[in-house]
Amino acid sequence: MKVTLDVSKHPSLKLDGIVLEDDSCKPAGINSTHISFETGLDGCGTKHNTTDEYIIYYNAIVANTKGSNDSSIITRDFQASFPFQCSFPRRKVLSVTSFSPRRKVVYTKAGKLISLIPVVI
Asked: What's the CA gap between 33 and 6, in Å, rounded?
């Protein structure tokens, strides 16, 4: 997944330390107006849900705000979260050359897991 946040619309964000839900996932690019991230569908804390029609992958950009330096109390009040998601129709065959899953998961129409085969990488 690739996601870009327009930081010029959020002037109170601290750009150093901005991460995805997995705090080891740093930005792929930063400039004065935008910050971008790239992650696999199974990396950086990305989770997924299924519906009858879609498989939905979701994550969030997490950043501290500039007001967080003024407090000696540890709190999440000065943390901003920007959730994002991408979805794929369940009734399509997809080919993604850059996605290497750690395991194979096959879903039925009812959304039940019918096969779980570990893949050695």
From this structure: 6
